[in-house]
Amino acid sequence: MDIPFSRWNLAIERRRSRRHFDPNLPIAPETLAALDKVCNQFAPFPHARSRLITESAETVFKGIIGSYGKIRDASAFIAFIGNMDGPFVQEEVGYTGEGIILEATALGLDTCWVGGFFRPEVAGSLVKLSNNERVLAVTPVGYSREFDSWEEKSMAGFARSHTRLPLSKLVRGLPREKWPDWVNICLEAARLAPSAANRQPWGFDVQDNSITVFVRTRGPEFNVSKRLDCGIAMLHLEVAAADCGRRGQWEFLPSPQVARFKIYSQSVLSALTQCGR
Ligand SMILES: Cc1cc2nc3c(=O)[nH]c(=O)nc-3n(C[C@H](O)[C@H](O)[C@H](O)COP(=O)(O)O)c2cc1C
In the chain, where does DSSP find H-type helix? Predict the structure, then answer.
């Protein structure tokens, strides 16, 4: 599936994690069908897939203790599934899942990545996993209530919900005054990516024609791989690049690096345009 870059780039700004849903606002069948289609079609890597489940969503979040991650009244959820045989499964799932989250946002739905506080065995039985597959994360989908509960407000405070680190703390490589024009736009989009507990574990190494994403922070992962968070930032970076006319290709790299996005030269880009890609 071709990525709808402009549509998803707009969704990057609009997306926010929402945890409490309005049981009186069901999702229209045509909206569910559109979301289901993207879940089935957006699978750019071999070891990551997504499935929309419209039954028993409550059971995936039921009995989870603590206000962080307490999801309420979701009527549907999406499972982000990784085949653990893949050496880069975490970043593949992050990238793929964020595409689905941005499409859901573009469809007017609310979401919240949930990596730790859900029941993987229940989610797994609902999606029917094959050998070596695991549900690495899920998102509820629906229409959120207004910020009406103290829990959701305190949750926003706990994770310092929407605040982000400045680029000066995240970037190494070329000094800012030497960045090509597209770099700042891409990094601003990557910086807005969601991450577990808003830990923003990514760093970016800027060179003339490439940006390498790496894991910048040390310390425990608490059940959710930092490489999955980095996969989410990768998608934001590529979407913003394409929206300003820069196309490129990812090369996955061993730890602590994650992947390098190399911009296509003008001649490769023209060749691709000629064959309609
Ligand atoms: C991989 C991942 C796992 C997450 N897991 C949870 C979770 O278990 N429970 C929860 O309430 N929020 C979870 N979040 C949501 C983050 O707390 C949220 O994205 C972050 O605070 C930034 O806020 P924003 O999404 O509104 O920009 C997760 C986010 C990501 C990307």
Answer: 5-14, 29-41, 57-61, 89-106, 120-127, 150-158, 181-191, 226-243, 266-274
What are the tokens at 134?
Answer: 């695991």
Provide CB contacts within 8 A for 187, sequence distance 6+. 167, 170, 171, 204, 206, 211, 237
Give the tens place of pLDDT for each residue, 119-141: 999 999 999 899 899 999 999 99
> Is 159's C-beta closer than 6 angstroms to any atom of ligand 1?
yes
CA 209 to ligand 1 center in whole angstroms: 31
Q: Which of 195, 200, 235 to mutate to test the pocket of ligand 1 (most atoms within 8 A of CB)?
A: 195
Q: What letter does residue 25 receive in the DSSP assignment?
A: S
Q: What pLDDT is recorded for position 154?
A: 61
In whole angstroms, give the CA distance from residue 169 to residue 276: 39
Q: What is the dihedral of CA 207, 43, 94, 46, to 10 degrees?
A: -80
